[in-house]
Write a sequence for this structure.
């Protein structure tokens, strides 16, 4: 049996600026197909900008390859339609639309599978007619993840999926991502080292807009390394 | 009392026309943040298209007036679509450029109309019943008022259905809230932008025809759109930028105030403009009390 060894997502010399600030300063990143790669780093080092650059929400300079396509300069919707899902930091659900309409927006192709979403997050099914803005933070995160899982994705970019959630919702989100990683390549920004240890196979650490470390998630058992790279204790 | 009812119906009919113009402006701003100063000329071109088609029809009756109305609507939609594709699309994210290019387009198209048809008004052929009146007790209500009012309500219903029930409507509402996230779900927002322009232009084209037929004695002239645009902008601001229901409420408010003041306080020749001035006063009061308009979104 031969496996496709080409990375699912790759950035070479990726630069990006926001409002005149040069945030990404030559990111070299390779996300292998399958499993979870965690993107780590202190606040403000460019993790979110990296995800947004990969799908064109922040205009990138440099090479960006997604599922074998050179996508730098492509409009965002075209990159997404390659089979990419994006769960943003702070959920960004459409507060004035119902849960159902939030999901419906993600119906960009055939094969929308509402049953799968409602099976993963039963609460979304019960609240399908509720305005998304009236959901709790945890429920909004379920919706943000649920809507990208409405159709099959080959790559998922997830930005801080457990940020600000209660332990109950953290467990639920982790369980879903655990199931998703069996069939989908996941690039995940996450501050919670325990979640990273549980889900990730590879970790990439950013600092000052550059990759400063790439290794196996198991290395995060080394508390000195964690403290040195992330400035937190594990 | 009966005069009051007649003026109220006339005000509501005028409000329906204001709503047709303002709804497009409001939708375009709500989704795209584009202040479209060429919207008035979409209205004028719709009226001219109606005039041109009606002139080639053998005899006007109800069915053929629908053809005339369809031509006006289609002309507005077509011009708006071409405007979005050729002029607005390259200028997204450049509000000053958009304002300049839409003002320039308005001036250019009005100039072309003046050059092509002259400054004199043209008369649209309309069915006889449309210029007739309906006896309502001692008052006689122009049939055109009922047509304008019915059209306004039908367009409000259609837009409500479109925005609430269709996928494109959902995209438009979501895009007004967070455009980037709509893109990040794989939606081609550019198509929605073009569609919104087309819908806005269609409503403006229809408004142009109704304005000529109901409020301008069936006459079409090159400046009618720009005159209407001022009131449409006032309606949009009072209603709240981006809100269709806000535009509907504001259109009724503005037109009723305008009609009542014009009739009851401005009947004398020296006070003929009092109705228009009162509209500006309403705008000032609403903005002082509620800066984002009646139903507008917060910045």
């Amino acid at each position: 049996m031969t496996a496709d060894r080409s990375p699912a997502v790759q950035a070479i010399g990726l630069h990006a600026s926001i409002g005149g600030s040069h945030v990404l300063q030559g990111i070299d990143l390779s996300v292998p197909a399958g499993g979870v790669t965690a993107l780590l780093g202190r606040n403000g080092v460019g993790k979110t900008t990296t995800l947004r650059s990969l799908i064109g929400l922040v205009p990138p300079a440099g090479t960006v390859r997604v599922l074998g396509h050179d996508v730098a300069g492509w409009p965002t919707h075209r990159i997404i339609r390659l089979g990419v899902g994006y769960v943003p930091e702070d959920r960004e659900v459409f507060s004035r639309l119902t849960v159902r309409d939030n999901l419906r927006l993600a119906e960009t192709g055939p094969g929308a599978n509402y049953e799968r979403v409602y099976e993963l997050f039963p609460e979304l099914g019960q609240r399908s007619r509720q305005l998304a803005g009236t959901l709790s933070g945890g429920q909004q995160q379920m919706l943000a993840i649920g809507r990208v899982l409405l159709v099959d994705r080959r790559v998922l970019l997830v930005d801080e999926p457990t940020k600000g959630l209660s332990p109950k919702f953290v467990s639920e989100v982790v369980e879903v991502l655990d199931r998703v990683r069996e069939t989908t390549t996941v690039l995940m920004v996450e501050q919670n080292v325990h979640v990273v240890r549980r889900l990730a196979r590879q970790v990439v650490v950013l600092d000052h807009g550059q990759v400063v470390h790439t290794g196996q998630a198991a290395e995060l058992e080394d508390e000195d390394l964690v403290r040195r790279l992330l400035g937190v204790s594990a | 009392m009966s005069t009051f009812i007649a003026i109220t119906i006339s005000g509501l009919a005028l409000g329906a026309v204001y709503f047709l113009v303002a709804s497009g402006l409001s939708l375009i701003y709500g989704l795209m943040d584009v202040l479209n100063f060429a919207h008035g000329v979409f209205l004028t071109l719709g009226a001219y298209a109606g005039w041109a088609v009606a002139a080639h029809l053998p005899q006007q009756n109800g069915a053929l007036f629908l053809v005339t109305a369809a031509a006006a609507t289609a002309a507005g939609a077509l011009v708006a679509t071409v405007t979005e594709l050729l002029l607005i699309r390259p200028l997204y994210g450049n509000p000053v450029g958009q304002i300049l290019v839409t003002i320039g387009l308005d001036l250019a198209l009005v100039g072309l109309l003046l050059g092509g048809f002259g400054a004199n008004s043209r008369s649209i052929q309309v069915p006889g019943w449309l210029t007739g009146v309906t006896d309502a007790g001692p008052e006689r209500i122009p049939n055109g008022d009922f047509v304008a009012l019915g059209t306004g309500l039908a367009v409000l219903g259609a837009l409500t259905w479109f925005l609430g029930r269709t996928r494109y409507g959902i995209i438009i509402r979501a895009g007004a809230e967070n455009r980037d996230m709509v893109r990040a779900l794989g939606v081609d927002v550019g198509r929605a932008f073009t569609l919104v322009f087309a819908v806005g232009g269609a409503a403006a084209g229809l408004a142009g025809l109704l304005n000529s037929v109901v409020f301008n004695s069936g006459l079409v002239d090159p400046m009618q759109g720009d005159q209407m645009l001022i009131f449409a902008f006032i309606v949009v601001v009072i209603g709240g930028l981006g809100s269709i229901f806000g535009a509907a409420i504001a259109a009724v408010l503005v037109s009723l105030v305008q009609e009542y003041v014009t009739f009851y306080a401005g009947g004398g020749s020296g006070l003929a403009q009092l109705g228009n001035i009162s509209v500006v006063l309403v705008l000032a009061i609403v903005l002082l009390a509620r800066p984002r308009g009646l139903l507008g979104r917060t910045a």
Q: What stands out?
A: The mean pLDDT of chain A is 91. Chain A touches chain B through 24 residues (CB under 8 Å). The longest strand of chain A covers residues 21-31.
